Every structure is written in structure tokens, then in C-alpha cells.
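Hypothesis: this fold can be encoded by more than one sequence.
Test: take the C-alpha cells below, design a sequence, compare later.
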């Protein structure tokens, strides 16, 4: 029995094909969309905290030196 699971496990553990640049960009774009959606939801749920975070970020951007 253990030999059978090792055989099926080895086929399932085949190395994945390398990710193409297009797939990586699509996955990154999807992640960034979901992140923006999560931030928007958080801003609606916690408006006071979101406003404070927005003000802190604005202050950081004003004091940042190029």
C-alpha cells in the first residue's frame, strides 16, 4: 500500500512549469485589485481610522524628500 501512495504522490509532485511574465503580471494585477477593494471596504467600515491613516500618509508624503 505505501508504494502505491508514493507512485501517485510522485506524479502529483511534478515540478510546475515556470510562470510566464504575462501570468505573473495578471496575478499581480488581481492581487492589487483585491488589495484596493479590501482597503476601500476597511475605509467604509472604519471611517475614523481610515481618515487618520489618510492624514498620516499625506503628512509622510509632504515631508518626504526626493
Amino acid at each position: 500500500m505505501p508504494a502505491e501512495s508514493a507512485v501517485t504522490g510522485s506524479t502529483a509532485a511534478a515540478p510546475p512549469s515556470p510562470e510566464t511574465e504575462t501570468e505573473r503580471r495578471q496575478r499581480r494585477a488581481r492581487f492589487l485589485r483585491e488589495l484596493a477593494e479590501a482597503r476601500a471596504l476597511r475605509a467604509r467600515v472604519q471611517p475614523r481610522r481610515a481618515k487618520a491613516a489618510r492624514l498620516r500618509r499625506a503628512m509622510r508624503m509632504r515631508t518626504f524628500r526626493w
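The chain has a mean pLDDT of 80. Residues 54 and 60 are 10 Å apart (CA to CA).
Hypothesis status: open.
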